[in-house]
Amino acid sequence: MRDRRVALLWLGFAVAAAVSVVLVLRRPDRLSDLHIYHGALTDLRAGRPLYGYVAPNGGPFTYPPFAALVLWPITTVPLGVVEAIWLAATCAAVVAIAVPVGRALAAGRVGASAGAGVTTSASLNVAAVAAVLMVTAPVQSNLRFGQVSIFIVLLALLDAMASPSRTRGLLVGVAAAVKLTPLLFVLYFLVCGRYRDAARAVAAFVVCGVLALAVLPGESLTYWAGTVTQTSRIGNLASLGNQSVHGMLLRLGMDPAALPVVWAALVVAICAVALLRARALARLGRPGHAAVLVGCATVAASPVSWTHHQVWTVLAAMLLVGTLGVARRVAGALLLASMVLSLGAVLAPVSMRPGVQFLFENARVIGTAVLCVTGFGAVALTATRAHRARVGGRGWLRVGVASLGALAFFAVQPLPAGADPTFKAYRLSDVVNSRYFFVCRGPVECARYGTDAPVTFGVRREETKVRVNGVVSAQVARLEYHSAPGGPPRDIPLLAAYPGVRTFSFRSATMAHGRLVAYSVDGRALATYDDELTAALRTGSR
Predict the structure, then answer these.
(1) Edge-to-edge strand order for the sheet containing 515-519?
(2) Which residue range forms the structural domain that includes residue 323?
């Protein structure tokens, strides 16, 4: 029976992988990050600056110069071959990650002393982890964009969980030379007393940097002298895709002067607690749980944690599901659900309060931060089944009370009302950009669009945002948009794009609580549009 379940799970993994690859290859924007790597390195080979490259979609090369050396071979073969190899390697990396995590699951479930039980259940767990991991948003994002993130996770995980050896620590150093976030594992080695591992990791990181400096001196100086701190090059850090503490603070609309201090304080606190929890887990014989916890801390602490970076959070959710205790299993299931689905989009129709919507939209970063602080509940990992049975009823009660308390807390919060992670008001220069949606183009078309009402607008829904634009009549002097009740208004520029016609355009995360208000010259409100925004969003009409 167990062999049959293992076979079915691997079949499910294979089907999910094949379907995912086919869907990726059918996308016109497939493997866009891989194309950025290829384009930037092609420019570099032609003598142009690595960090001056800008892809057709606006994306730059953002990794340290050593990453360019690692990725250099992709410019030596046709791009189609690179795409095929990259997709296959990504699927293989999922399996490679599932092996140690599946063994950690088995160890946590049957107890450290039950070696035979661990061996027996490990194969089933490995297959289950691989199948579930393949359908989660972070892995799908790695496949879609052709990202290196999943390989960074693999290197750090294998090194952190490895048995003592003369090479342990080297993989973390190499991974950090490609992407800086694994440097937190050096602190983990130090906290755990693994001083030689920490020294080897730092040495590998430095050697890789020196090698890049010798081969690419100009690019190395450019990166370490300034590019490394320019996180804004990566994109809009307040967008919902950035599920880091920094991204959540940006979405709260925090004062820019206070943001760096608050963010640094939270990052230090989260990382310090996570490292101490990880040390406790390692001492309890749970190196897999410890490594994943440190990885989750890198997701929470990094200024930028896009969906493809969040593989660590998926692994943590699966380890929680395999942990003893009702509350932890339910928490793991909820966290895993947030990593498969976009809760902000799926639950928007039932989130009647801005605070609750904010909770759903930031479920991944909130869940990751809470996990870092609680550390899986290290004591629960050694609990006996008898104890679990004895407290099971109370566990469900604790889950219910905690869930209701969280919803109640966010329901009454005034702060998230002003949060609008993807808001942007477009300027005159954007009107000519063919990628943007405008209800009319040209003076004749816009004049015919209709200015009998103060504002005539159209709405278009996209994957992570909603675009609104239209035409205002001559009596409108000012236009403002409220993201949610109680939130600060956003001024919408009126664009004199064509003679005698003024247009406007902006984007927002959601129209669930949006309100558009038009004012006359004397400051009188001419018209308010809220239900109209929601209705237009449903019908796609003006």
Answers:
(1) 489-491, 478-482, 515-519, 525-529
(2) 236-419
CA 60 to CA 152: how far, in whole Å?
Answer: 19
All residues at 6 or more sequence positions from 160 whose CB lies less than 8 Å from its CB, including other chains: 172, 185, 188, 287, 290, 291, 294
Average pLDDT over residues 309-320: 93
| SS3 state at 490 | strand
Residue 365: which pLDDT band, with cuts at 50, 70 and 90? very high
The model's pLDDT over 59-114, given as tens digits with 9 standing for 90+, comes to: 889 999 999 999 999 999 999 999 999 999 999 999 999 999 998 887 755 444 44
* The one-letter amino acid at 312: W
Buried b (16+ CB within 10 A) or exposed e, 234-260: ebbbbbbbbbbbbbbbbbbbbeeeeee
β-strand pairing of 455-461 with 525-529: unpaired
Residue found under tokens 């992709």: 74
- Could you give the CA distance from residue 356 to residue 379 in angstroms, rounded to a whole number? 31
Distance CA 539, CA 537 (A): 6
Q: Cα 532 from chain centroid?
A: 32
| Backbone φ, ψ for residue 510 (5° rounding) | -160, 155
Residue 421 has what pLDDT? 63
Q: Name the residue type at position 499.
A: P
Under a CB-based contact definition with an 8 Å cutoff, are residues 436 and 505 in contact?
yes
Q: What angle do CA 497, 500, 503 make, to 5 degrees?
A: 40
336 shares its domain with 246: yes
Cα end-to-end distance, the chain, whole Å: 58
Cα separation, 526 vs 477, whole angstroms = 10
* Last residue of one domain, picked from the residues 402, 419, 436: 419
Q: Is residue 217 located within the same domain as residue 241?
A: no
Q: What pTM did the predictor assign?
A: 0.78
Can you tell me the distance from the alpha carbon of 432 to that of 117, in angstroms, rounded to the nearest whole number? Answer: 65
Domain harbouring 474, CATH code: 2.60.40
Q: What is the DSSP letter of 482?
A: E
Question: What is the DSSP-derived secondary structure letter of residue 528?
Answer: E
Q: Yes or no: say if 321 and 333 are a contact pair by the CB < 8 Å rule.
A: yes
The string of pLDDT tens digits covering residues 483-529 is 765 556 788 999 888 888 888 999 887 676 688 999 998 889 999 98
Q: Give 202's Cβ-side CA count (13 Å radius).
A: 11
